[in-house]
Every structure is written in C-alpha cells, then in structure tokens.
Amino acid sequence: PSPTTKRVKKIVLHPSEPIESKNTREGPCHFAITWEGSKKRSTMTIVAPSDKIFKGTKRDDVRPRSVSGSEDSERFVPILALECRGIEPYKFHSLGGEFFVTS
After folding, report:
1. Phi and psi (nearest 5°) for 84?
2. DSSP-derived secondary structure letter, 76
3. d(CA 87, CA 35)
4. Residues 89, 82: contact at Cβ < 8 Å?
5. Residue 82 class from Cβ within 10 Å (0-12 exposed, 13-18 middle, 19+ buried)?
6. Is the dihedral of CA 18, 22, 26, 27 positive or negative?
C-alpha cells in the first residue's frame, strides 16, 4: 500500500440502517469515514434496485436483483451495488444467512 492508503477492516453494511449526514447537502449513507487530513467525509451507500440511479438508463447489467428462473442459469448476476465516494472497497464477504438459494 502507498503511504496515503489506509485499510479499514470488517465493515458491516445493512440496507435498513442508514447514517444521516450532519451536512444537508449530503444524503444518508451506510458507511462514512473522514480520512486524516481531509475536510470531506468518504461514504459508501447501498444502492437499491429501485433507486433513481438506475431510472431512465439501460443499466440492467449492473442493477442488483433476485436470481430466479432459467434466464440467470450459469450466469453471473449482480447481487449488490454500492455508490462509493472517496472509498475503494477491494473485498466482499457475505456473513452468512443473507442470501437464500433455491433450485
């Protein structure tokens, strides 16, 4: 890692637990951190399939969705979308029990 890189381990995000911002210009997010020497906070927000970021676009390739039917058989399907500002996640681990697989 470069001298400006800082690792934060074991961050747990939950879609029903947003963090409200003290700044009225920023909306709620699911994780926030202010890096040393920075005036602005960096944020991660879980993007729901119905969020306006996907409206009016042809972004179905990245829209998270439930996997169902034969159309998704043997294909990678997005299950999570994050809007990141000032943060670059490099790993993802599900905690178990969040995803249900049926066949």
Report:
1. -115, 130
2. -
3. 10
4. yes
5. middle
6. positive
Nearest-CA neighbor of 34 among 85, 69, 78, 79? 85
Coil, strand or helix: which one is 95? coil
CA distance linking residue 3 with residue 16, whole number of Å: 35
d(CA 50, CA 55): 8
Residues 25-75 have pLDDT tens digits of: 778 899 998 888 888 889 998 887 777 666 665 555 556 655 566 666 676
pTM over 0.85: no
**Backbone dihedral region of 15: left (phi > 0), alpha (psi from -120 to 50 degrees) or beta?**
alpha
Surface-to-core class of residue 73, CB atoms within 10 Å of its CB (0-12 exposed, 13-18 middle, 19+ buried): exposed
Nearest to 18, CA basis, from 55, 40, 43, 53: 43
